Amino acid sequence: MTYPTVPPRHPPLRRWILGVSGGIAAYKACELTRLLVKAGAEVQVIMTQAATQFVTPLTFQSLSGRPVLSHIWEPRQDNGMDHIDLARWAEAILIAPASADFLARIAHGMADDLLTTLVAARSIPLYLAPAMNQAMWNNPANQRNVEQLTLDGAIFLGPGEGQQACGETGMGRLLEPSELLSLLSPLIGSKPLVDLRGKRIVLTAGPTVEAIDPVRTLTNISSGKMGYALAAAAVISGADVTLISGPTALSVPAGCHLIPVHSAAQMRDAVLSEIQDADLFFSVAAVADYTPESPSGHKIKKTGAPMTLTLVPTPDILATVAALPNPPFCVGFAAESQHLEEYAKRKRLAKNIPLIVGNLAQRALGRDDNEVTLFDANGSHPLSPASKEILAHQILAHAITLMNTQST
Ligand SMILES: Cc1cc2nc3c(=O)[nH]c(=O)nc-3n(C[C@H](O)[C@H](O)[C@H](O)COP(=O)(O)O)c2cc1C
């Protein structure tokens, strides 16, 4: 089987900072956020203080799936340096709307709030979508700033010409979100490989957490990245996605319905209540195989003596779903530290599922990239090493092709 590859272009820019400054057009940045996320971008919104007077951060948080940042003095980060961390994380910055005041500040290298500091600290492309009254746009000082920023390498998107919010007509209108997106989407470059509109997908992801007592647990080092990447790829491909996840540090991919769980038993219950009308089930979670037989209701006191914990097997969620009278197309994951091919093939047959994704635990767990082999009734299909985001699209494409072959 050959795989459609994500088309090579300029290296895709997936991680975007959307800076929103204080202008009446800030409301249009809400729709822009939605469109960018839908196009496959990860969007971190940063607002100036003035912008928060026009639209609440909560609106952007809901649309981007990430908490909005606006204060430079927030001591939330370990090292207190959001501006440096974000400048390293992001692959591009878009300021929309860019106010006259904001352009003036960055044209002069000012760094007096989080967004300007980030712009000053960046070494990545900067796109500016100005929005202001036509007199402000034409003001000589503003024109000098635009010229300086262009010389400094910023790329201006717009402004447009036409009727303005203030009632005047002229240059200075923010480009429509759809216009901005059509300019930017070739850069984002995450074209879905399959069309999943009308399909319902249930996924599990992350670790499970088994209680020993009210303050102690047994868990594993799964980060949830592969499952979340699959959920995001499924959303981008048009599917209705339910993500049942153990605790992770990840942002929930925008557009999917999250059901948070802790234990393997909770995960099984959530899966069984969601699976009825699902077309596909991806069992990506690192579900505990064993759980303490009788967790203590109170904190176990230290005695100094050796302690024995009796563990009992947890429910096999994937095998349970595969054994349902009318099961969805089931895809399992096998993370093995050795004998990957042998164990993965055996697991596929034991669970009676059409497809299993095998990866070496030491190569996969917690990392951003992965190297996987797909095992189905036709044999094994190694995929080239890639980011989990790209692999997610390829795994989805293989699963859908196989599913369609089986149903014909
Ligand atoms: C109701 C209202 C609408 C505004 N609209 C704009 C605008 O469209 N463009 C602009 O450049 N400034 C506009 N301003 C002025 C900016 O909000 C002001 O210059 C502010 O300091 C910008 O701060 P910032 O660049 O940090 O976001 C507006 C102000 C008010 C009160």
List bound small molecules: flavin mononucleotide
Q: Total strand count, please?
A: 21
Sheet with the most strands: spatial strand order? 12-11-8-13-16-17-19-20
CATH fold assignment of the largest domain? Rossmann fold
CATH architecture of the largest domain: 3-Layer(aba) Sandwich
What's the story with the biggest beta sheet? 8 strands, mixed
Give the gist of this structure.
It is built from 14 helices and 21 strands.
Describe this structure in words.
The relative contact order is 0.11. This protein has helices at 26-38, 57-64, 82-89, 100-107, 114-121, 134-138, 140-151, 177-188, 225-236, 264-274, 317-322, 340-351, 361-364, 388-407, and strands at 15-20, 42-47, 92-98, 126-130, 155-156, 160-163, 169-173, 200-205, 210-213, 216-218, 240-245, 257-260, 280-283, 290-292, 311-313, 329-336, 355-360, 369-370, 372-376, 379-382, 386-387. The chain is α/β, with parallel strands linked by helices and 408 residues long. It folds into two domains: 15-188, Flavin prenyltransferase-like (Rossmann fold, 3-Layer(aba) Sandwich); 200-291 and 311-407, Rossmann fold, CATH 3.40.50.10300. α3 (82-89) crosses α5. The radius of gyration is 25 Å and the shape is elongated. Strands 12-11-8-13-16-17-19-20 form an eight-stranded mixed β-sheet, with helices on both faces. Mean pLDDT is 88; it is low at 1-10. 34% of the residues lie in helices and 23% in strands. The structure holds flavin mononucleotide. Flavin mononucleotide is lined by residues 21-25, 48, 50-51, 99-102, 131-132, 136.
